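Reopening this one. Same input as before:
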Amino acid sequence: MSVDQEATHAGALVVNVGQCSRAGRKEQNEDSLGVQVPEGDLLYTKGLAAVICDGMSGCEAGREASALAVRSFLDDYFTTPDSWTVKTAVTKVLTALNSWLYSQGQRQYDSAKGMVTTFSAAVIKSNTAHLFHIGDSRIYRLDGGVLEQLTTDHRIWLNNERDYLSRALGIDINADIDYRSLLVEEGQTLLFTTDGVHDFISDRRMAELIDEHSGDPDAAARAIVDEAYANNSHDNLSCLLLRIERLPTASEEEFYRKLTETPFPPDLAPGMVMDGYRILRELHASNRTQVYLAEDTENDNRKVVIKTPSVNYEDDPAYIDRFLHEEWVGRRIESPHVLRICSRERKRQFLYYVTEYIEGQTLREWMHDHPRPHLDEVRDIVRQIAQGLRAFHRLEMIHQDLKPENIMIDCSGTVKIIDFGSTKIAGLSEMARPIEEDPLLGTLNYAAPEYHLGHKGSNRSDIFSLAVITYEMLTGHLPYGEISSAQSYRKQAYTPARHYNEAIPAWMDAALRKALSVSPERRQGLLSEFVHDIEKPNPALIEEADAPLIEKNPLLFWKLLAAVEGLAILGLIWMLSGR
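Same output, byte for byte:
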């Protein structure tokens, strides 16, 4: 069967697929294969997926295992969050699949060889192929007439005639799956085969047959299977081809046209009605956005907040892209500690989005009203912010702009993160885009040092920002003073929180020091670790704080020692010269 996935819009991914699978000289076919090319936005955010599996010979249910692996992978991958990277999404799917195959094999067949299969898959997203492999089925790339094997056979040979699979899905409770990614180009072909094919036909001959049937991938797949069979293959024979006809490399003009399809709204004033929302008053205005309190006239006059973009950026595609991403992020996060974006219930005439209305104050206002808060109050606020941040991190998103102005406390004391226009989305960062994001989108005083250096952020970057906020709530100061550039961190050392507030325990100050390390690797690795460290003494941090300088900071120790020695030598020279 040949599938030519025509683009629904300019710049979409287009592939031509060919496949053939036969039992060969065996009674039944234990191989399985499949391709899924979704339509619309899913093709853009998730890509397409292709997979081939070979049920292990000698196991009780190899046929069922391979068929289940193909079906589950193609179904489950496309239901994972589109904010996840391909690697994260597929790894989670395969981990669950392997556990199920192994447990079913043990339960139904009382054997580790109950339901076992090889697995080789590719997800093509944007201009990158992500490969996942375990077993001895193979994936090749054909480019310029040369066939290159991209996977490694997990096969151990006992002698020239006997071998066995060392790794496969369902053979062990833990599956060690190979992963690699590589750029692909238009005109290249990915070839998937099982050992009943590639053990009985040379790579060169397969490349020749693909070239001979360049316009018909189905015919090429059949020709490869036929020749392997003619060469006395005694196994099942399966072959799958993906020819890449076009990659989704949208031009700047196409990208900008899509962003500007919906016009910016006009200036809004109290009493005006837009798409059923009556404007009550302006809540906030800056040179980047306007925020209005409104009531939904089509939903019991419920109070909502409308956020609109500033006309100052009407011709700025990077700004419009970030504005749209803020709504995209909000729709995917469900947490009582993150501002809720209201679902679209009607067609919009203009570019804006609607959120829940939170009656309360920003954390900045709360800090102004509570210059010396109780430690437990601070811990409670930090705990709630961390719960909101975890909702981002679970979806492989990094907030990147956490600050007191972006946090609200409602009348019941619930803390919510209310702004996420700078959020880094791992899944979207894998796609080719004609505009580049500014690596430093956050606020200088709260952005982690790595952003100032132009490096990518991580969940530890959000931990740093949360630690700055915690430090400021406790002391009224910033841990490194006012930050203007990366040089600020080199010029100024961390000021202990206890210097400003003696009520802070030494062990809590040690936790803050760790989270505020200039080097990301020295910080806590998880939000839960940071929250735990500021709530209860961590013996490891206390020992680290009490350790001698040569253990805590060897570089600083040797610098100070060298400085002391230098001064001593200068003093000696001065004494000798005086004589």
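So the earlier flakiness isn't reproducible anymore. For the record, The longest strand covers residues 237-246.
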